[in-house]
Amino acid sequence: MTGRAVRLALAGAVVLGSCAALAALSLVPYTAEPGDRAVVRLAWRTRGERVRACRRLTADELARLPQHMRQEEVCERRILPYRLRVDVDGARVVDDLVRAGGAREDRPLFVFRDLAVTPGTHHLQVTFEREGTLGAPGPEEREEGEDVDATEAGRRARETPARLELDGPVVLVSRQIVLVTYDDERRRLLLAPSAGAP
Q1: Which of 70, 87, 99, 134 could, after both became Cys, cross-link 125 (CB 3.0–4.6 A)?
Q2: Domain span at residue 183?
């Protein structure tokens, strides 16, 4: 038997063994969500508040830079983080700092969490609160001739409030998903029940 024939025989044995293992695994019972739990799903995206931090470079820092990159002042733009806290029946179940995406933290903020809870009536409290200070806002792009005050008013109307809160009872049945999300138009957190298993 040649070396090529041995390799083909081994490859065939591996393929047959893999198929047999896959067939055996397909017979194993699987439950997507064991038990009769319900889910509170936190899911939203928001722009957050863009800030700009500027500082003057020292003489040493300037000397280390190439000639064409020397600027006396450098500025960084980023989105301020938010603190997400969730209490169920008075017990803290989430306490996380939500940072903006991107290497420079200048992308939108995303929240996506599933919290398994027992069916029944629960008191749910969700807070989403800005951390840090605003400082100087990032520069806004505006159309030629557009009023600066109008641009500032538009920016304030689009920004996420410094504190969002949802506080109240929620009734859950077995294997139900209840969605907590952010309404950009009303600028508040909303509770939206949905049918189906998690």
Answers
A1: 87
A2: 3-25+33-194
Name the strand (E) or helix (H) holding 52: strand 50-56
123 token code pair: 């008191």
Q: Which amino acid is at 130?
A: R
Structure token digits, residue 107? 């992308």
Is there a contact between 183 and 164 (Cβ–Cβ < 8 Å)? no
What pTM does this model have?
0.63
| Gap between the Cα atoms of 197 and 37, Å rounded | 10
Q: Are 140 and 150 in contact (CB under 8 A)?
A: no
Total domains in the chain come to: 1
Distance of alpha carbon 194 from alpha carbon 178, whole angstroms: 6
Q: What sections of 129-192 are H helices per DSSP?
A: 148-158
Query: Are the C-beta atoms of residues 134 and 49 closer than 8 Å to each other?
Result: yes
Looking up tokens 């995406």 gives 101
Q: Amino acid letter at 121?
A: T
Tell me the per-residue pLDDT of 67-124, one tens digit each, with 9 for 90 and over.
888 888 888 777 889 999 999 999 999 999 999 887 777 788 999 999 999 999 999 9
